[in-house]
Design a protein that fits this description.
Chain lengths: 308, 328
Amino acid sequence: MAANTNHLGRVKHGKDVLALNIIAYTFCGLMALICLVPFLMILAGSFSSESAILKNGFSLLPQDFSLEAYKTVFKEPIVVFRAYATTICLTIAGTFLGLALQTMTAYVLARKEFEWRNVFSFFFYFTTLFSGGLVPYYLLIRQTLHLADSYLALLLPLLFSVYNLLIMKSYILGIPESLIDAAKIDGCGEFRTLVQVVLPLIKPALATVGLFIALAYWNDWYNAMLYIKTEAKYPLQYFLYQKINDIEGYKKLIANGTVSGAVVSSVSLPTQTLKMALTIVVTGPIVLAYPFVQKYFVQGITIGAVKG
Amino acid sequence: MRYRVRNKEGETVNNNVAVKKKGGVKGFFKKVYKYRAFLLMLLPAVVYTLIFAYYPMTGIVLAFKKYTYAGGIWGSAWNGLNNFKFFFQSGQAGLVTRNTVLYNVAFIIINTVTQIAVAILLTEIHNKHYRKVTQSIMFLPYFISWVIVGVMAFNIFSSDYGFMNRLIVALGGEKITFYTKPEAWPFILVFFNLWKGVGYGSVMYLAAIMGIDTSIYEAAAIDGANVFQRIFKVTIPMIMPTTIILFLLSVGGIFKGNFDMFYNLVGNNGLLYNYTDVIDTLTFRALITNNDFGMSAAIGLFQSVLCFITVVLVNKLVGKYDRDYTLF
C-alpha cells in the first residue's frame, strides 16, 4: 500500500497533472473574477462623481471619488429604513412560520407507520406538476382573499414550498427509526417527539431550509409588484426596483424637455451614481452576511444532494 | 416515489388492504382516530395547499371565458376557444413558445457543462484558500435578486455609460446600442443566467464528486490512467446519476420562462420582444398591461398543460433508464 502511495505521489508531478493544475487554477480564477466584476462596478460607481460617470461611463475603480450619491440616498433616511424594516420583519416571520409548517409536514410524511403518507405526498407533489397559472392566483389574492396592498400578500405566497418540503423529508428519513420508536415507548406524543427528538437531529436541515426561505423573502419583489400599491409598504427589492424606474423615467422627462433641465440639472441631482448607491445599500447586508451563512448553505446542499 | 415504496413493502400494503376491506367506513374512521396526531400536524399545510394551489386550478375556466370584473371567475360569460384562437392566430404563441424552449435548451446545456467543469476543476485545486475563495465568489451571485442583476446588466451594456461600449471604443470599435439590438440578447441572457447559477449548480456536482469512492481512483492510478483519463473515465461516469436527476428537473421546466430574469433584464422594452419574449412575460403583460384576464389565463393554461406533459414524459424516459431515479 505504501508503495502505491509513493507511486501516486510521483504521478502528481507528471506533465498531465501540471497541465490540469494550470487549467484548474486559471479557469476557476477567471470564473470567480467574472462573478466579482459586476459587484465591483456597482461599488465603484456608487463612490464616483456623477459628472465623471456621465463623461467616462462605469469602470472598476471609483472615478473622482465622491459621497454625493450616498448623501442623496440618505437625505430621507426614513424611506430606506422603512423598506428595510418591512423586509426584515417579513423575512423573520416568513422563515419561522415557513420552517414550522415545512418541518411539521415533512415529519409526518417521513413516518413509515403513517399508511396514508403516500397519498398526502402525492397531494403536495402534484402541485409542482400542474398549476392554475398567474391569473387565477392573482384573482385569489386580490379578490377572493382581499389581500391587495396587505403585508399578508407578501407573506403567504412564499410560506410553503414543495421543494423545501422534499429536502426536509429526506433529512428526517435519515434519522434512525429506533430513536423515534424509543421516544414513543417512553410515552412521547407525536408533537413532543418532533420537538424534542427530531428537531435537535435535523439542525443542518433547519439551517439550510431556513436560509432558502429567508433568501426567498429577502429577494422578493414580484409579489410586491403584483399586490402592493402603497409606497410605504414596499419591501427592499421592490423599493429599489421602483426607485431605479423613477430615476430612469425622470431622466427621460428631462431629455424630452418636459421638465426643464435648468431646474434640475443632471449634475446637481445624481442619477447614475444614485442608482449604484441605492443598489449598494440594498445589497450590502447580504454580501456582508454571506461569508457567515455560505457555510451552512454549502453544507446543507451537500448533505441534501448525497442523501437525495 | 410511490411505486418504489409500494414494491419494497408490498406485503404490508396487501395486509392493509385486507384490513380496509374488513373495516369499510368504520375502519376508515378508526384510522382517522388512530392517526389524529399526524392528521392534525398535516392540517395547516393541507389547508394552505388547497387554498393556494388547488383552488386556483379551478380558475382555469377563465381561459374559456370573457372576464368581466362584475362577473368574476364564475359569473363571466363563456367565450369558447376565442382566447386561444387569438393567442395562436396573432402568431404570439409560436414566438413565445419557441423563445422559451430555445432559451431553456441553451441554459440547460451551457449551465450543466460549465457547472460540471467548475466542480471537477475545483476538486483539482489543492491550495485550500484559493479553492475556498474562488468557490465563495462564484456562489455569491446566487444570493442577490434579479433586480440587482438588472442594474448590473445596465452598467455593462448601457450604450452611453456601459462598460462594454467603453471596452469596444478603447479597442477601436464602434459603440453598440445593446438595448435596441435584439439579436445581442440571447447572449446577454445566457451569460447572466450562467453567471447567477454557476456556483450554486456546481455545489451539487461537487457533492456528487465527494461521494465517489476513492479506491476507484487508486485503482485507476495503478492501472496507469493519467489525470485526464481519470476525469473522463471515472469522475464523469460516476456523477452521471446526479447529472441525470438535475437534467430531468430542468427539462421538466423547459416551457417555464424565468420571469424574474427576463423582466428585470429586458423589462418593457418592446424593441427586444422578438428575441426575448417568453411565455411568462407574455402572460404577465396580458394580465397587467392589457388587463386581458381571459387571454392571460389561456396562455397560462397552455403553458401548464405543456409543462405537465413534459414532466410526465421525461419521467417515463428516465424510468426506462433507471427506475430508482424517477421522481414519482
